[in-house]
Write the structure tokens for this entry.
Amino acid sequence: MKFIGAGARPGRSQVHHDAVFTVPNVLTVVRFLGVPLFIWLVLGPQEYGYAALVLVIMASTDWVDGYIARRFNQMSNLGRIMDPIADRLSLIAVAVTLVIAGVVQWWYLAALLVPDAILLAVSLYYFSSHPDLPVSRIGKLRTGLLLTGTPLLVLSKLPIPGTEVYAVIAWIFLGLGLIGHWIAGYNYFRAIIRKGKKANDDDGGVR
């Protein structure tokens, strides 16, 4: 069973609709609403077990909403933009929380922020908004790796046997995820430049 692109039906084209209230979009909102709960669990009562569970649920909805969208033809223009933004903001908010809690070092947050900051600057320069690019396979894989490694890292802070193993496995996933993050960022950077220059040429060179 494939995880990337799961739910897509062979031979049927994927059409994005203008619908707003779809199941995938609702799940995306629910996923993002899990962020403040995670922040409170980590920085408040320090319930790392429940915090890891929240992350697992958030990661699950990320896969489920994509599956439903493709399987039941609920892919929307809003979801195409909102889903990756929600993923990115969630990952960054979780990373900031873990830095404050002393679970990860500042460099991990910087490794997430730098590519996104560059992409944001380039997008605003060329489009003054979201560039509306499709999510790449490496981008989806990157998100999956980070969403898997983060709850494992949180679990490694629990007073249970095998925490060292959890930490090692977590950093394998996170390390690969960060590599994928920079590769995806480079690919998106090139795609934004190409699309921006093409739009500029189509407008007669006038921005």
User: Anything to note?
Assistant: The chain has one domain: 23-202. Residues 23-202 form a domain with the Four Helix Bundle (Hemerythrin (Met), subunit A) fold (CATH 1.20.120.1760). Residues 45 and 131 are 40 Å apart (CA to CA).
